[in-house]
Amino acid sequence: MSTNRWLATGNYFTTYKEEQRIFLTHWDRVLFVLFLGLLFAWPLLFKISNKYMLVLDSTLVAIIAIYGLNLLTGFTGLISIGHAAFVGVGAYTVASFARILGDSHILLTHAWPLMIFLAAGVGTVFGAFVGLPALRLKHLYLAIATLSFQMIFQWTINFMTFFNQGQVISIGRVSWFFGKVTRKQHYLFWYYVILIFVVVLGFAVRNLMRTRYGRCLVAVRDNDRAADAMGMHPGFTKVYAFALAGFFAGIAGALHAYLWRGVGFESFTLHHSIIYLAMAIVGGLGTIVGSFFGPVAIQLLDLQVENLAEFAGHIFTGAGDLATAMRPLSFGLVIVLFLMFEPRGIANWWRIARSYFKLWPFRY
Q1: Chain mean pLDDT for the chain
Q2: Dist CA 285 CA 346 (whole Å)
Q3: Hey, which end of the chain has fewer CB within 10 Å, N or C?
C-alpha cells in the first residue's frame, strides 16, 4: 500500500498479505467501526415501532441469505432459482424439532444457538446434494435443476402431514442470560442476534474470498476449463459453492423461524426465490457490499409500493388491492432496469463514490 495509510494513494503492495488486507486504509477501519457502533446503538436511542423493527430484522435475515446466493451466483456464476427452498430447509429443521419435542421444549428455547447451527448443517447437506448435478450440468440446465428442487420442496411441505401440510408450525419464545425474552423485547433481542450473525458471517465471506478456496470459485466462474487446467476441479468446486449457499441459507431460515415464532409454507415459495435473486442482482453480483445494498433496496421498494398503494387506494376506491398488483410490476421493472442500465448493481455506485476519495490516480 502507499505510505499514506489514511487515504489510498496508489497500489504499492510488496507482498500478497498486504494486498489481501481487509481494511486497506485507516479510514476504512475507522468508518466501519463508527458505522457498526451506530447500528448497535441507534435502536436504544430511538423508539421504533414493532412493525419497522420486524422489517429491519427481516432485512438482516435476507442479507445472510444473500451472502450464500452471492457466493453461488455472483462469485461462482451458477444461477439458482431455488434459494428460498434452501432457506426453507433451515426453517423447517427448527420446525421439525418443534413438531417432535413441542414448541416450548428446552432444546428450542434454551439451546437455540445449537439449533441455528444444526439448521446450518442440514442446509449444507441439502445444498451439496442439490449441487451434485453440477458435476454434469451447466448454465440453463443447472438452473432448471435448482428450480426442480424448489418444486420438490414445495410439494413435500404441502402434502406431508409431518410438516402440517404447509400450515404454520409454532415455535416458543427463547431464553437468554436474563430469563425468557418477553413480547416487548422480542424484535429488539433478535435484531442484535441477527446483526451479530450478519457481521461475523460477513467477515467469514470476506476471509473466504482471500483464500485459495474463494479464488477457486471466481476461477470456475470466469473459465471452468482454464480452472481445470490449473489443477482445480470445476465440478467439486460447484458442489462446494452449493454447500456454502445451503449453509448461509440454513442459518437465515433458522433465524427466520425464531423471528416470526413460526414456520409457514408461504415464506419459501418460488416468488421468494425470485425476490432473493432480485436482491442479489440489484445489490451487485460478485460483491460483498452488494449483499447489503440489495436486501435494503428491495425492502425499501416494498415499503414505498405499500405506501403508494395505500395512498392510491384512497383516491381510486374501486381499484381493489393495488399493493398485490403493484409489487410484481415494481420488482420486474427494477430488475429489467438494473440489467439494462446498471448490470453491476448498486455496488458499482458505491465503488464510484469511493473513488472520489482517492488521492491517486486522480479524483476525476
Answers
A1: 85
A2: 10
A3: C
